[in-house]
Amino acid sequence: MGAYLITADGFADLCNYGEEEDMQLEVRTSSTGAHLWGKFNFGSLEGVLRSTGKTPTVAGKQIPLTWRGENTGDERQMWIGERQIGWIKFLSGGKVKGHLDGFMAEGDFTGHLFESDVRVKEVAAWKNEWRGLNQAAYNAASVSRWGKWVETPRADGPSASDTSAAGDSGEDDESDNEEMYEDDSE
Fold it and tell me: Is residue 68 assigned to a domain?
């Protein structure tokens, strides 16, 4: 696990990015080790990924994942929902490769490790970002594009998580939510 410099030609084209400028992927297991979480920046496509399978114990094992993201460029598209899937594989020598697939966003990526220290605290921030990339946020973004009233975006609550038993809010998830649900009526 760690931070990787990424090459992702398919996403460079998607995001009108001619070169792989500062494309990165940071990956870490959660505090319990049950899930792999990551933050990616593939040009103007940025987002968060979460494994749906067990975390790797050996190099070369393909790990299924889901992802949520957005195009931070001019078009401001958002990718959320069940169709955002993919996989990641950690290879020997500090290399990684994977694939993300989603509505109008598909591509392979490869990379090499440049920093092995990604703090577990980063995972809490990635979880909050994951929960904020949801239907309410999508609707609010639509208003800025097309105009009309829409609900105020709210972050998703924790789902059955690597830090809790089937739907119970575990300690990690509770601390993540305290920041997220503070009074925002000002």
Answer: yes
